[in-house]
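ok posting inputs for the iron/sulfur cluster job
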Amino acid sequence: MSLSRRRFAGILLGSGAALAAAGLPRGSAGGEGEASLVVQAVSPLLRRAGDDIPATAAREFLDRAMLALTGKGGRGQAWGSLFSPSETVGVKLSCLPGPRLSSSRALTAAIVEGLLAAGLPRRNIIVWERSSRELENAGYRISRSGLRTMGTDELPGGGYDGPVTESGSVGTIFSRIMDEVDALVSVPVLKDHDLAGVSISLKNMYGAIFNPNKFHANRCDPFVADLCRHPQVRGKLRLSVCDASRVQAHNGPAYFPRYAAEYGGLLVSRDPVALDFCGWAIVDGLRRGMGLPSLAASGREPSYIRTAGGMGLGQADGRRIRRLEL
Amino acid sequence: MKRRAFLTRAGGAALAAPLLLRPAGSAAAAPQPRGREAAYYEKLPDQKVVCRLCPHQCQVADLERGTCGVRENRGGTYYTLVYGQPCAVHVDPVEKKPLFHYYPGSQAYSLATAGCNFTCRFCQNWEISQRRPEQVRWIDMPPADVVRRARAGGCRLVAHTYGEPVIFFEYMRDCAALGREQGVPNVMISNGFIEKAPMRELCRHLGAVKIDLKAFTETFYAEQCGGRLKPVLDTLLTVRAEGTWLEVVVLLIPGLNDGREEIERMCRWLVRELGRDVPLHFSRFVPTFMMKNIPPTPPATLHGARRIAMDAGVRFCYVGNLLSDAEHTFCPACGKVLLRRLMYSVENAGLKDGRCRFCGEEIPGVFS
Ligand code: SF4
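and the output
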């Protein structure tokens, strides 16, 4: 199913009709000149109880966000407008920091429910990270068949036996999982990153390559953008679902309770650049509340987000991002 | 070494590529790299660290790794993930390193771990150097095993090579210290991108050092290697000052670092700062990794560079990765061939007790 392309004048969308028009065609994340929609929810219900979001809240808010994002009337339709049953979809999690700050299991389960509702067979869904160890540390159970939940390192040859490929400043080998999937859902956790400024949807793609340690100079700029304009990413990253239930506002990417905010947030967008831009604003807002300088004032402005916008990967201009608060 | 005795002990195996242990398979089968506290780092507030091993000086937050990919911050303590865990092990002739004035004709027990602090687009060993420890198969081989295996295999020395030994500093240092005690000298085959203090510590234990001088411009280092030239020059000075045997290799890449003016400047610097006796090797580039669109270096370029070096005063200059007379060691005084090389075989044609048998000229190096 594809949706027609529409232009918007930067209005804040509120009505169902307006929401319906917010959808972009499959494969588009909002090019230059187009406005992008980022759906945001902030609710005490989305705060982590223990180390996870309550399952009902995760499902309910994600459903609402997807309806708002796609303008569809039901879960199956909403997810079906982005993913078709014949496709294989990778759900790329972010699990480096362990259970306290990894992609919520409840949110991941809700994403999987959405994909199933769109008619995807279970075997066409891969929930994945760099390594199975990271997934297990974050509380996920490894499954190697059916609906797979696994690290790249489960694959023969360590999962990085493909060709060397280049995209601007980035030379790398992608995870074989990237070859297998037709589409990607990026499920980052909203967090500060000591070198990059923030690590959200775009930087989550560092987990898809074999040599991420090579690309942290200059606040990851332009490396993140160069990686994300590679056809393997740009052609597949169709949806970003950012877990902002607990936000690490400083001293990330590890979990430091002192600088972690129980924010209770969720951000969903088809445009990873716009989503990152909004996430950056949230991190800066939380920092302000903690009496910390902004990322820019700390010399850690995540300029790769603007670079990605400049490359046409999405919107990094606040005037062209429509934030819809649920 | 007896005159006219070809030393080909390694036979065909010596000419093969280094044995890369199988790549990591499944998580179930591939053991996770262990950690051992790293040397040369400082703790910072908020569980951060700064690594002082190489000039990158990576500042690393908790759970993150440095540029080399083999050092990890775990809760404010910095760990090397490759200590005693080589992923490539092989027996090579020392000429393959290349070291031409250090026990010529001998065998080197050669090893590497995953990782490198550079990202050379032309790396011949990128399958080792650009991978992280968990992406390769490695074996447990503590320093005592390295020295024991070297001796058992009839190897005169141990070579830390293939990838970048700087990033497995602690392992190399301990192997070298033990090897020195037991009469099996260790050599380091390196890009030279290391801080002065760790390099000086290594020099106390190493028998020889070979440095790859990638080019003589900062631009090349930045664009092609992800590094810097100046610290490498500083390392050359340090090794020379410490008195450790030193040889220099320059891989000439057409159109990138083979300009006459650049080679002249480089050779003048080498002669001025290191003296005339440090052997210099110009090596032939072959397309690989991320540099497949550039043809191999023409022989004329390599021989031309050698001529420039000798005109600048370098007394021992070689051409590598190419069969030619420029592999031989000539007496700089009388011009006679002293060591005749063919591939990795060496014939002693006129060297006796470190001198030219024909005219008595002293030949610098470590020969016996
Ligand atoms: S050795 Fe590795 S971690 Fe240390 S400064 Fe160099 S690249 Fe960074």
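notes: Residues 42 and 265 of chain A are 4 Å apart (CA to CA). Chain A has one domain: 5-20+38-318.
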